[in-house]
Amino acid sequence: MALGSNLGDREGHLRAARAALAALPDTTLVSASTIEETAPLGGKQQPPYLNQMVLLETRLEPRQLLQALQTIEQAQGRKRTERWGSRTLDLDIVRFGERRVAEPDLIIPHPELSNRDFWRRELAELKPDER
Predict the structure, then answer these.
(1) pLDDT value of residue 131
(2) Greatest CA separation found in the chain?
(3) What's the pLDDT score for residue 7?
(4) Active-site residue identified among 10, 26, 63, 78
(5) How does pLDDT run across 30-86, given as a tens digit for each residue?
(6) Residue of 10, 90, 95, 116 with catalytic role
(7) SS3 22
(8) Among 15, 18, 59, 92, which one carries the catalytic annotation?
(9) Domains along the chain with CATH numbers
(10) 10, 87, 95, 116: which is the annotated catalytic residue?
(11) Which of 18, 21, 46, 53 has its CA 20 to 30 A from that of 34?
């Protein structure tokens, strides 16, 4: 899971997200990478992001997990108004073990994984066999 925030209490939003993820049913937060500040993507003028990757073990299906992530984002004040816009919290499923999903609103592995060096660095911190 990738966590990102560039509005408000960025560290607080990431902390709240980690706690909410750990509290999901049939889910354990196994590890978390260090938090990294990065420039925004997408070419829009906006504040820098704090990013972090977490490793979850879950019995939730990918669609259930996506719905839970969107609920967590909304609880932290996320408003989906524009693509690549600023946000209080952004949660992305980057990988789901070896599973692949190709649906209009859910693609796993995340199609941007190979384009985001910070995601690969953070993912590498989590657990050697999850790279």
Answers:
(1) 44
(2) 39
(3) 94
(4) 78
(5) 999 999 999 988 767 889 999 999 999 999 999 999 999 999 999 988 877 766 668
(6) 90
(7) helix
(8) 92
(9) 2-130 (3.30.70.560)
(10) 87
(11) 46
Residues 80-92 have pLDDT tens digits of 776 666 889 999 9
120 is catalytic: no
Q: Give the Cα separation of 48 and 39 in Å (integer).
A: 5
What is the rounded distance in angstroms from the CA atom of residue 1 to the CA atom of residue 10? 17
Strands (E), the chain: 2-5, 27-32, 36-38, 49-58, 90-92, 101-103, 106-108
Flag the least confident range among 25-29, 75-79, 119-123: 75-79
129 is catalytic: no
pTM summary value: 0.90
116 part of the active site: no
